[in-house]
Structures are given as C-alpha cells and as structure tokens.
Amino acid sequence: MTLETAAAIDGFEQVDVADRQIDGPSPGQSLRLRLYSRGDSRDLRPCLLWIHGGGYILGCPEMDEQLLCRKADELGCLVVAVDYRL
After folding, report:
1. For the chain: N or C, fewer Cβ within 10 A?
2. pTM of the full predicted structure?
3. pLDDT tens figures, 4-42
C-alpha cells in the first residue's frame, strides 16, 4: 500500500503511514516496520507495538490498516506494526 492509498482510507487523511527497515535477528536480514502517526504531532508520545494476528502462519501489518490508523488517530500515539518473519 502506498502513502497515497493509505491517506485515502476513509476518515484517516491526517494519519501518516510509513515503512522502515531495521536490522533483523541474523546478518543480512532486515525487518520491516509499518509506522502510523498523526501528522499534527512530532513530539514525544506513547507508542503502541502491534503484532498482527495469523498464528505465525499468515498475515501482514496491512491487514489491520484501518484499525491501526484509527488507534493512531484516537490515541494520538505512534503505532508500530511489525512485519515479522513467518
């Protein structure tokens, strides 16, 4: 999902969505994080770590996109969704 697509989610135009890569558990392996935050705040704020469902068999952060946008908007926190290795 692109930033433009995420912005089009009904009612959440003010929520910024961005992907970041961090070092993973093994050399040469990266881990993707999907970040959701209200665009009106760059100050320090609480963080919600989201680990998607799927029983370690299937799933990705995007499957909860609307819920995560709502949490970032309503709570005013940074939501970090981990795209963990299945």
Report:
1. C
2. 0.77
3. 554 455 667 789 999 999 998 888 889 999 999 987 667
Q: Would you state the structure tokens that stand for residue 67, as one six-digit string?
A: 């819920």
Residue bearing tokens 């050399």? 27
- The continuous run of DSSP H or E covering 21 comes out as strand 15-23
What are the helix (H) ranges across 1-86? 3-7, 65-75
Report phi then psi at 57, rounded to 5: -115, -40
Contact assessment for residue 3 and residue 14, using Cβ atoms and an 8 Å cutoff: no
Q: Are 82 and 49 in contact (CB under 8 A)?
A: yes
The answer to whether 64 and 83 are in contact (CB under 8 A) is: no
